[in-house]
Amino acid sequence: xxxxxxxxxxxxxxxxxxxxxxxxxxxxxxxxxxxxxxxxxxxxxxxxxxxxxxxxxxxxxxxxxxxxxxxxxxxxxxxxxxxxxxxxxxxxxxxxxxxxxxxxxxxxxxxxxxxxxxxxxxxxxxxxxxxxxxxxxxxxxxxxxxxxxxxxxxxxxxxxxxxxxxxxxxxxxxxxxxxxxxxxxxxxxxxxxxxxxxxxxxxxxxxxxxxxxxxxxxxxxxxxxxxxxxxxxxxxxxxxxxxxxxxxxxxxxxxxxxxxxxxxxxxxxxxxxxxxxxxxxxxxxxxxxxxxxxxxxxxxxxxxxxxxxxxxxxxxxxxxxxxxxxxxxxxxxxxxxxxxxxxxxxxxxxxxxxxxxxxxxxxxxxxxxxxxxxxxxxxxxxxxxxxxxxxxxxxxxxxxxxxxxxxxxxxxxxxxxxxxxxxxxxxxxxxxxxxxxxxxxxxxxxxxxxxxxxxxxxxxxxxxxxxxxxxxxxxxxxxxxxxxxxxxxxxxxxxxxxxxxxxxxxxxxxxxxxxxxxxxxxxxxxxxxxxxx
Length: 533
Known about the structure:
The chain is an alpha/beta fold. Helix content is about 40%, strand content about 20%. It has 19 helices and 20 strands. The strands form four sheets. Strands 1, 2, 3, 11, 12, 13, 14 and 20 form an eight-stranded mixed β-sheet that branches. The protein has a seven-stranded mixed β-sheet with strand order 9-8-16-17-18-15-19. The radius of gyration is 22 Å and the shape is globular.
């Protein structure tokens, strides 16, 4: 059972590895290192562990806060499935979402993204019969970019002096794709703006519009889902539930309500952390999974920050987009209410994605540039056994942090009437989208509540409630400091800032961080063990 730091848990004198944060990056690294014989301690400031993989319960419902679908896990020999199986001892099970994983709605037109590369292409051919050549070239570029990714991220594990010799060669091919924007690449293949808008409709999965985002980031997301989408059976909390026993078996533990004040550094060596209550905990290796901004701004002592100009690096990257999520509970099962498994991506008819976002940021009353609707209770085959006669829906949209900044100093659940009124206005607007596309759900909603960027700030500790860490623009992929090793001996980084957005990116960040800590090619080892099994 995961313990609370506040209950005066008896700590060891020292640990092999101490981790700050319990997101999937830290959980992945912790499980891998536990299997390498390391005794790991994970410290989580929130009252529940798991980062964006945790769930919350209210009024007889349960909602997953960050996981809506995962790609490639149905293919047992895929790298992501192999890694998930390894860190959970194959205890984590997945449910396939079916033939259509994403339904794109632009104005009054609807398009289906169908699993399977040839199926996907053939469906897009039907929508745009005169664009077959462009569609084929697009898919080829998606695969080429994704194929070049391996060497790029392998270079991040290399010691700095070796990276200086080999890094340029290993990164060259990937940078060819990452240095271009998504729009620039696709518009070089076709001038059909309707097709471009459709092919870039999943930009919400990494949070940056086509004219600003790196094509490499876009390509990795598209490829990730071409084989379809899946959902963890039992909900996303099963990720933590299946990883923790691996950590515990190696005498490791996770403590919640355990906020770290700063990292203790002596003679340029990280030796432990100082907690908010003043207690010091020591370890041979320190790993921060709290994100680049939190690590460099809050956890590193001032003299060390100045010495290595850590904060100046942060001027080279930007926080990603903030969001809001309307969590909805309904009376009636998913089957009774005919809830789909497919996600709905809803966009305005007029304007490209960038224009729609700009119009919205200029005028909050403009149409939402993106509304994403997910049906978690219909994706999870165990849901009806756990919550009979109930179902859930999540509706996500972009919400600028500035809209809520006047309440940033207030406390969660105590932000005042004006804040609640604004939330209700947004909630009603989002419900209109739901009822427009699923009108039969009117009168079935039992409960709803809106999370804002302040909710994300409170629970995940991102300064502006950003969803995806730092922006995935072309500039990001040229920053050499976004790697597991830091200049401080025994201090490492992990999480989505080190690789890319989302659960998959953070999962592999855990792997490369563990590889950097041990100096071993752990991916090769894990793949080899998978073949033996």
